[in-house]
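Methods — Computational structure assignment.
A single polypeptide chain was analysed. Its primary sequence is given first, followed by the predicted tertiary structure written as structure tokens.
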Amino acid sequence: MYQIIDKKRLNEAVELMVIHAPFVARKCEPGQFVILRVEEKGERIPLTIADYDRKKQTVTIIYQIVGYTTKLLSTKNIGESILDFVGPLGKPSELKKYKRVLGIGGGVGAAPLYPQIRKLKEMGVEVDVILGGRNKEFIILDREFETICDNVYYATDDGTKGTKGFVTDVLNRLLDEGGIYDEVIAIGPLIMMRAVVNITKPKNIPTAVSLNPIMIDGTGMCGGCRVTVGGETKFACVDGPDFDGFLVDFDECMRRQGIYKEEEHSCRIGLGGEHHA
């Protein structure tokens, strides 16, 4: 059993939870993830590691409350425990000591981006970040990024924080103003990552993306998380989740992501039997 050490509501749909998980905390690196199960007979869901503290033996996860299991997880409070917390899984991010890197985090994509940016800063890399969300309430970890980054830019759909528009609007502006980056790391919705690549690829700015396809066992055995990268079949759980954005077949990823939409809708059932859209 893995005890919940801390829990915070970041906005109406997103929560942060700190879990006491000594083995995971001892081994994990930026870019890796865990698979957890809240209770016996519960489903296994993958969640990216948002932070870790080796001394306190804790791992931080950030999740959007969208389905049955995340709703169930949300009912757990500080002092309670979850049943399984398996990891670290996946390959650590390949972070290079570039001169300057731009991170782009869309919505909860800021969570897996944070440990990568923090590690780069520790390596002496200059780091700028663009954070995006529907409105200012959906921008997460802004204070944490502001603490470690050279510059933090914001984009919101309604203009309540930073630029009114998308993260790609800010990216275009920074590049038009002469911004030079050795690499871009984009993490967020598939459509956002594809839009970023559509800008960076013609300019030949290496771009890493983090894929979060349908995943079941996290060991490469079930094949559920297969993606096409550079014309080859890869499994995000063992070959990723980070990939060269220039090589990812985003259209295929998006088609596969929608395969179980009807079933997902049926599973969005409240714990008390209430149906949610």
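Note: The CA atoms of residues 31 and 93 lie 5 Å apart.
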